[in-house]
Design brief:
12 helices; single chain; 10-stranded mixed sheet; 12 strands; globular; alpha/beta
Length: about 350
């Protein structure tokens, strides 16, 4: 799927290829947590412990070439899966191995919390959002089940171009759809999709989100002067998906996105806050529950959640590993719960 030149370039940037089509890279917030600089917004919002979180993808290819994506040409563009399909067991074990190897240097760092470093060797969360489109992996449901069997929680982000893959998912800890614009015209401009029916795919994905039993979230990446408009359009899409959470996050002017956007397109946290407050005026069923200033992101929660924003990890694994269906309120809590 990738050439030797592409792989060499990725490795220089601290990516590690896993098998034929997967990859892992240590998140900056994992490093921050280890050195006492705090955890990411997922820790504050949901209870994900950043130093035990592995950032990876099960598919390097993507069907979009988003203008705001910092990853650039790392992800090959294609519509359909080509080539071999690695087994879920191989992907998980090799990903954990490479993740642990990438953290080895922190064992001798004077700033590292020794207890957290020891804990970091035991992965408890996986963020399937590194690059490409993880959900395109043909055995995505089997992969999620294997993670759950090892009591590793799963967060998966999709750009909603593969609704047929969403239909395969039985259980997941938290499922994300990126809604990058409030209408079809702006979405084509910002996401630059390959599929001609890209908007219909988004709408079908949102319909599937509404039917889901597990925790769901719509992520809005706010690009100043580009998609910070048409509140009625956002309202329509959000209500179609009816997610449990909405994350409104500011675009960051880094990486390959600098070829398409200017620094002025990066909103300050105060501007993300202003946009969110305007958005929420049109949404009767949501309220702001938290924010993370360093990441320029606010979290909105649906009122049906009764402010139960955190994840009860032991309860989730008890359900899914006994052949049950994880229903949102069955494994949500108003307090942080320990990892398994």
């Amino acid at each position: 799927m990738l050439s030797k030149v592409q792989i060499a370039e990725l490795e220089k940037q601290q990516y590690r290829m896993v098998g034929d089509h997967s990859a892992v890279k240590v998140c900056g917030w994992t490093k921050n947590m280890l050195t006492g600089k705090g955890g990411c917004y997922k820790y504050k919002f949901y209870g994900i412990r950043s130093h035990q979180c592995m950032q990876m993808t099960s598919s390097m290819h993507c069907a979009n070439r988003c203008t705001f994506c910092w990853r650039g040409e790392k992800a090959p563009v294609q519509k359909k899966w080509n080539g071999v399909v690695d087994s879920p067991d191989e992907i998980i074990e090799l990903s954990k191995k490479e993740h642990t190897k990438l953290l080895l240097g922190y064992g001798g760092n004077d700033k590292t919390n020794s207890m957290m470093y020891k804990q970091s060797k035991e992965v408890r969360h996986v963020a399937l959002s590194l690059t490409g489109e993880p959900i395109a992996y043909p055995k995505i449901n089997e992969l999620l089940e294997k993670f759950h069997q090892q009591k590793i929680s799963t967060f998966l982000v999709t750009n909603a171009q593969y609704p047929e893959q969403i239909e395969k998912i039985k259980n997941i800890t938290q499922f994300y759809i990126s809604v990058d614009a409030p209408n079809k015209v702006k979405l084509k401009e910002i996401d630059r999709p390959l599929f001609p029916d890209f908007y219909e795919r988004l709408l079908k994905s949102l319909d599937l989100m509404k039917q889901a039993t597990y925790r769901t979230c719509i992520r809005l990446t706010l690009i100043k002067g580009q998609n910070d408009l048409d509140m009625a359009g956002y309202k329509q899409l959000i209500e179609r998906g009816s997610p449990d959470f909405i994350e409104v996050k500011g675009y960051m002017h880094v990486g390959a996105s600098r070829k398409y956007l200017e620094r002025e397109n990066m909103p300050m946290h105060s501007e993300v806050d202003d946009f969110t407050k305007e958005l929420i005026e049109s949404l009767d069923d949501y309220e702001i529950v938290s924010e993370h200033t360093a990441s320029r992101v606010l979290c909105l929660i649906h009122k049906r959640m009764n402010k139960q924003q955190y994840i009860d990890f032991p309860k989730f694994f008890e359900i899914v590993n006994n052949d049950g269906i994880a229903k949102t309120l069955d494994y949500s809590s108003d307090k942080m719960t320990p990892n398994c």
